[in-house]
């Protein structure tokens, strides 16, 4: 018979009931039996069996449950064997448990903005207790280009403040046993190490939750989840592990970068005249971090680019990328970068400038990544990047009076040429609204014409060629000079061939006005002035804003009436 004595007092009972079992020969089933034993140590167990002294005989004994050692450091326990013959022997039992589990690891950014410099509240639950000599370590991932998430020079760690959403959600929160400011260091292995995070003389019980704030870290560079975070607790000086996470976790942010006006895209246009060819250079700047290879850029042109096709808006060059697709109906061009861009993406377009003149709407863009069928946002621009389109000229102006004598009333004929045609009065971007086209001719004050309310032009005494037949006319004298306003123009005459198909025109126009009274003397009158413009409905309210097309142009020649003849 053999008596076994576990001659150590360092075993700790985990729970009751404490049991000892005689398992007999492990090679033979069915010979287990209970053994009376105490749960206090040193523990002596009498299996109550006689051992077969045949060579190779095995015997197994179980007792417990016992708590495993608090660290993964191997621990040895002495066992004394006492034979009924009086002889004895000692042996050593080595117990090296694996680390416990850190569970419920969660990474919560204070800001949800892509790529922002931020602080993370990192919460987790420990399995084994921690003392004031133990250490905590977080492992961070790296970005795809191996950039670090943490600034080694500015990193700081602290107990997450009480009352935050993260701490309020924790069960068994023991964060107050952490130091308010926790010394921490970061190395290029992406490890944030805290050697003495617990208040002196404090012990954090097993099963408790903790929340630590790590500052001067960078949010993920898109709304896609960034995985690779883990946590480990250690004995003093990071000698051996106590608990660790079984698998890595991810962090996600939801808000793309909203580009401030200071970083709005660069836009350079070599020709801003309406209806002409121009080269447009655009630069989309980075958001404080590089654009990775495989990043998509979606550019939306203003609504003024009604005729949007690869002939009117064409990409002629793209740095770091190639065109992926275009959506002409929505004025979109999408391209994908084929290499990393550290400062930005430069594009060159060849465009046909739209009409009419005036400020265009805003250029917009989105930057994003795609994984399978899922789109992950990076940043967007919704600012006021636009430019002002410039009108053309009104040229080859001539004036002819039916009767040029002073004080005579008659018909004036005005001839001139417009550089640009009037836009479509039913624009595709406003199918339910109308553009209203105008031609305005201002008389010199020395020539007079009675007011005429808006009516068909024939009833006002005005006729013309080159402007369509449905226009209406009015004449007013409110500014000290008669102003002829021709509106609702829906046709511009066929352009003369100037030899350049990219810039059709000019467009010859003739206007005849009756009932114009010549000056009372033959002093040279001021010149006629001309301009064409359009009123455009606002997107939502229907308010009409005015945009120049051609002019204003002042005639080259003064009108000078002929003196009458003195007779008899």
Give a written overview of the molecule.
The chain has 568 residues and is mainly beta. Strands 10, 11, 13, 14, 15, 16, 17, 19, 20, 21 and 22 form an 11-stranded mixed beta sheet that branches. A hairpin with a 6-residue loop joins strand 20 (226-234) and strand 21 (241-245). The longest helix is centred in the first third of the chain and has 5 residues, at 165-169. The protein is rod-shaped. It starts with a strand and ends in a 14-residue tail after the last strand.
Summarize the structure.
This protein has 568 residues and is mostly beta strands. The chain is built from 2 helices and 44 strands.
Mean pLDDT: 85
**In percent, how helical is the residue content?**
under 10%
Q: What is the structural class?
A: mainly beta
Low-confidence stretches: none
Strand % is 35-45%
Shape designation? rod-shaped
User: For the terminal residues, how far apart are their CA atoms?
Assistant: 168 Å
Q: Radius of gyration, Cα only, in angstroms?
A: 44 Å
Main sheet overview: 11 strands, mixed
Please provide the count of β strands.
44
Question: How many DSSP helices?
Answer: 2
